[in-house]
Amino acid sequence: MPTATPVNPRKKFPWTVEFEGLEPALVQQVTIPTVSVEVAEHGSSNILVKTGGMVKIGDIELKKLMFMDKNENWAYDWLKSVSNPEDGTMGVPSEYKRNGYIIFHDTDLETVLEKWQVIGCFPKEIEKDELDRT
Length: 134
Fold this sequence. Notes:
Blueprint: E1 15-19, E2 25-31, E3 35-44, E4 47-57, E5 61-67, H1 74-82, H2 93-96, E6 98-105, E7 112-121
Antiparallel strand pairs: 1-2, 1-6, 2-5, 3-4, 6-7
C-alpha cells in the first residue's frame, strides 16, 4: 500500500507575518508598500519652486494566508477592534495598531532572505476566497 508523503506548506508559503499579540501566519504573496514624497509647489510671479512635501506610505497586501494555529478569525477579530461592523463601534488607534515583521525565507525554508519591520499596522479590508466548486 502506498504511503502518503506530507507536503511541506513552507514551499507554497515562503513568507511569514508576525504581529504583536497575534499568532504568526504563512503567506503566499506579499505586496511591500511603496514610499513616495509629494511635491509642494510654491513661489511668486513667474518662478515656480518645487520642494519635498508629505511622505506617503502605501498599504501592505497579504494574499493567501495559512494560519499556523488554525485560528482563521484573528484577522477578522483584529478588524473588529478597528471598526466593528456588527455593532458600529470604533476602536482606539493606540489599542488596535500593531507592530510586526514580514519575513521572506529561502527555498531551504530556514534561511531568512529579507525581513521588514512594520510599525502601526491595522487591517482595513479582508477579502475571502470565492466559494466555487468548479
